[in-house]
Structures are given as C-alpha cells and as structure tokens.
Amino acid sequence: MAGLTRKHPQQDSGDTAQRRARVQPILLRRHYPKRCQRSLSTTDCPRGELIPFWKIGARTMPTVEKVIHEAIERQVMPSAVCAVLLGGRVKYHGAFGKPDPEAEMEASPTTVYDLASLTKPISTATLALIALEEGKLTLETPVTHFFPEASHLKGVSVKQLLTHTSGLPAWRALYQVADSREAVLQAVLNTPRTRPPAQGYTYSDLGYILMGAILEQVYEQSQAELFRTKIVEPLGLQATGYCPPAEMQARIAPTGNSESRPQKVLRGEVHDENAAAMGGVAGHAGLFGTLEDLIRYARMVLSGGRPLLSYYSVQLLLTPQAQIGNQPPSMHTIGLFAHPNPMLPRGDLFPTRCVGHSGFTGTVILFDPQVEMAVILLTNHVYYAREKDVYLDYRRRILNTLAAQVGEV
Q: What are residue 366's phi and psi, to 5 degrees?
C-alpha cells in the first residue's frame, strides 16, 4: 500500500530484515521434518504479491484431497476450499465440489461463502483493535458508557464482550421477538446476565452483537461501512463484506434453508436468523467472503498487522486474553478461541498454542504464530442440513490430514 509508513517492531531496519531472513530456514528445520522442507521452501507466492495465487504452482496433498472428496460424496458438504500459509506464502490451496449441487459452477478461490461466526474475529474484533489504536475506546471502557440505560450490565467491559466473559448468555432467538435492527439491539440490552462478569466463559453471540453496536456508536457509521473503509480497502479485499450485491449472486455458495426461512434456499442472504433480523449486518455474523480474501487477511495477521494493525494489536488477537477470576488468561484472545477452549478448531495434531475460530456454516481459520502458519477452510456444509456431528468429524479429519502433510508443528 503506497504511502503507508507504519513502523513495525520486527522490521525497523534492513539489519532486522536480514536477521529474520536468516532465522526463517532455522524455524523450518526446527519445526518441520526433512520430507517437508523442500516443499515448504518453495516460493510459489511471494509475500508481497497478491492473488491470483492459484495460477502459480503449489504442492499437492493427496490425503487431504481424498478426505474432502469423500465428504462431498457422502453429502456432508457440497463444496470446500482450503489453503495453508507459512510465513505469508501459500503452500497449499485446493477447491473441491460444486457449491450448488444443482448447478455446473465448480468451487474456486473466488467462490463467496457465508462466513458465519468468522465475522466475530475478521470484522468485529479487528475493528475493535483499530478503534483501540485510534483512541476511540479502551478494553476497560464499560459497556454502560455507551448504553447507560442497561444498568444490569454495570461492571461489564469492552474486553469482556470480546473475550466472552461478560456473563451474557450464549444465544437467544431474538428474531422471534424483534423484526428490526433497533428491536434486536434493544432485546439484547434487555437480556439479563447469567453470571457476574469475569466469573466464567460463555461463548456469546449476544456479546458480539453488542460490540458491533458499540463500534457503530463510536464511529457513527454502520458496521458494514466500517468494515469496507477500515478493512476491505486497506487490505485490497475483492469480494468480502456484508450483504453481497446482486451481481455477485452467481459466485455465492448457497446455504440451504434456516429455521426462520424453511421454504427458501439461501444464497447471498445470511444464514444466521438473528443477523438476518438485523438486516444482514451484525457483530456476530453476516460477513461473506472468499478464500482469496481470507488469505489476504491471514497474511496481514502473520506479517504483524501490516498495513492494518500495529504489531501490539495483533498480539492481542493471537494470545489468550480472557480473564476468569484469578486464573491466568486463557480460552479466548481478542477475537479467537484459545487453549483449552474445546471450541478451538485445531483437530488432533495442530498444537495447543494455535488460536482460531469456526463458523456454523462450515468455516475455519486457524493460526500458529510460532511458525507463522495459517489454515483456512471454507465450506457450505449446512446446505444439506445434516447432523453437525458428521461434519465436525470430517472437519477434524481434514485438519488432521492438513497438519500431517504440512509437517510436525
């Protein structure tokens, strides 16, 4: 990005860059067996180069591909796209199946998927970190500063919303009692806590709906517009955002129907009922995106935040921050699941130091900052409305085969 001169603690000088270049092969030798080092040292996608990465040669992963093809044949998912990055470079990418089984279009890195709860880290948490850097709020700012009428939320901070330690319940069928954005927000504000703040962890859609509303109040803009100006434009994202336009419909992976819209095949309309009741724009769900664009986002994270965030903000995204009682921080970063959270989608082989997130529609993003690695998996498994356990089993198997093929991390 021309004109951006943000300094980075790890790249303040040419000497530092040279030291990092010398360290990279050492990291590869330390964390990966010899059988992987040759593949992982290829330069199939330079760090600074943007897509189309699929036009450049990349290694194949037959075991990964076999498992994904099996999942598609068993109608666990109509389609899947995935990628592995190491040090900002794409080491593997694949696209499988047809997003719409009734159509001829095949999945590709530009297929648009409903990202579901990946909205939480990629939109809401990232925007919150930007707001911190711009002095708009702090992690300790109380929620009642923005919503003084919600006296039952006294003592709840922005950080507790972002780390799911606010005491708010996990979920409510808000769409059954509210039919507008304002009514949904009011229903959230009227929802009592289930426990005092910082006394336990409950993964809460309501907390992120509230966080999205706080960001909108702080900037006096919709979250969709904030995402466009503060994330899409700086990163050069091509097809990621809220409420995809009509001209993009042919590229969107359908997600079947939902409880509130049982007779309708959803395509370009958010699957999450509460987000739909808010007009498709919410802090917990609503984002649509492509593998191509999520690679851009992952590169930003792996490169220490450039050109979007500072190095220190990225550390909040990559390290545990949830404070429960007097225990050390664990369970959640500012935006991502962390060990020992059972919701962390790392399979059996990726190490416990990884952080990541998943989405109900069948999406995953996972980071291992120690070796500068990211894994992205996007599917539209909810198209078939199959039991979640079957999908989760295949997700685990896919992640295990990715870990085994990439190396012993």
A: -140, 135
Q: What values do phi and psi take at 340, rounded to 5?
A: -100, 35
What is residue 219's DSSP assignment? Answer: H
CA distance 143 to 125: 16
d(CA 373, CA 383): 30
Interatomic CA distance for residues 199 and 195, integer angstroms? 7
The dihedral formed by the CA atoms of 44, 46, 52 and 53, expressed in degrees to the nearest 10: 30
- Cβ atoms of 320 and 333 within 8 Å: the answer is yes
Whole-angstrom distance, CA of residue 314 vs CA of residue 295? 16
262 is written with which tokens? 């049982």
Domain boundaries, the chain: 33-123+223-406, 136-219
Report how far residue 9's alpha carbon sits from residue 2's, in angstroms, rounded to the nearest whole number.
Answer: 20
**Residue at 362: amino acid letter:** G
Q: For the CA atoms of the chain, what is the radius of gyration?
A: 20
Query: What confidence tier does 339 reach under pLDDT thresholds 50, 70, 90?
Result: very high
Contacts of 187 (CB under 8 A, 6+ apart): 172, 174, 177, 178
> Considering the entire predicted model, what is its pTM?
0.86
- Residue 209 pLDDT > 80: yes
Whole-angstrom Cα distance, residue 363 to residue 380?
A: 8
Nearest to 377, CA basis, from 81, 178, 146: 81
At 241, which helix (H) or strand (E)? strand 241-242
List the beta bridge partners of residue 111: none
Q: How far apart are CA 42 and CA 8, in angstroms?
A: 26
Class of domain 33-123+223-406: alpha beta
3-state SS of 71-123? HHHCCCCCEEEEEEEECCEEEEEEEEECCCCCCCCCCCCCCEEECHHHHHHHH
Report whether 269 contacts 276 (CB < 8 A). yes
For residue range 215-262, what is the model confidence (pLDDT) as tens digits? 999 999 999 999 999 999 999 999 999 999 999 999 999 998 766 666
- Confidence band (pLDDT; 50, 70, 90) for 405? confident
**For the chain, the helix, strand and coil percentages under 3-state DSSP, each to the nearest 5:** 40, 15, 45
